[in-house]
Amino acid sequence: MSDPVRVLGIDPGFGTLGYGIIEARASRVDLVAYGAIKTESGEPIPDRLLKIYDELEAITRKYSPHESAVEELFFFRNVTTAIEVGEARGVILLVLRRLCVPIYEYTPHQVKMAVTGYGKAEKGQIQRTLKAFLGMSETPKPDDAADALAVAWCHISSRRFPGGVRNV
C-alpha cells in the first residue's frame, strides 16, 4: 500500500448507524473521524431513511473515502428490527454506489478476527484493541461507531493480507 487509502467503515443500523473513517499508509493507520447517525423512533420510517441518506451522503462527501466497508447483517430475533436494519442497509449501499465509492462487505466474525484474532471477541475487547491500534486517548463511543471503526480496520487488514475481500 504505497498511496494512502481512506476507508469509510459502516455498522448498519436504523436507530443508530455507526461510521468510522481511517486512513492507511504503508506503515501506519490513522484515525480520521467517527460517530453515529441517529434517528428518532417516533418519526415515520421514510423520514428516518431520508435522514440516514442525507447524513451519510454529507459524511461521504466531506471525507472522500477511497473505499467503503459495510458489515453484513446477521441473524435478528426480532423480524421488525431485521427489516428496518435491512432497509437502512439498502440506503447505505445506495449512497455509496451513487457516490461511486467501492463497497466491500464483511461478516461480524471476519471483523472480530481482523481486530482481535478471535472470532468470538466481545465488544469491550474490540474497543480496547482499536483504541490501542489507532492511538486513541479514549475508547470509541458509541458502540456503533466503535463497530464501524472495526469494520474499516477489517478492510484495511484484508487489503494488506488479501484473501477475504469481497467487493459488491
UniProtKB/TrEMBL annotation:
Free-text cofactor note: Binds 2 Mg(2+) ion per subunit.
Enzyme Commission number(s): 3.1.21.10
Record's catalysed reaction(s): Endonucleolytic cleavage at a junction such as a reciprocal single-stranded crossover between two homologous DNA duplexes (Holliday junction)
GO molecular function, one term: crossover junction DNA endonuclease activity
GO CC aspect terms: cytoplasm; Holliday junction resolvase complex
Family stated for the protein in its record: Belongs to the RuvC family.
Function: The RuvA-RuvB-RuvC complex processes Holliday junction (HJ) DNA during genetic recombination and DNA repair. Endonuclease that resolves HJ intermediates. Cleaves cruciform DNA by making single-stranded nicks across the HJ at symmetrical positions within the homologous arms, yielding a 5'-phosphate and a 3'-hydroxyl group; requires a central core of homology in the junction. The consensus cleavage sequence is 5'-(A/T)TT(C/G)-3'. Cleavage occurs on the 3'-side of the TT dinucleotide at the point of strand exchange.
Protein known as: Crossover junction endodeoxyribonuclease RuvC
Gene name of this polypeptide: ruvC
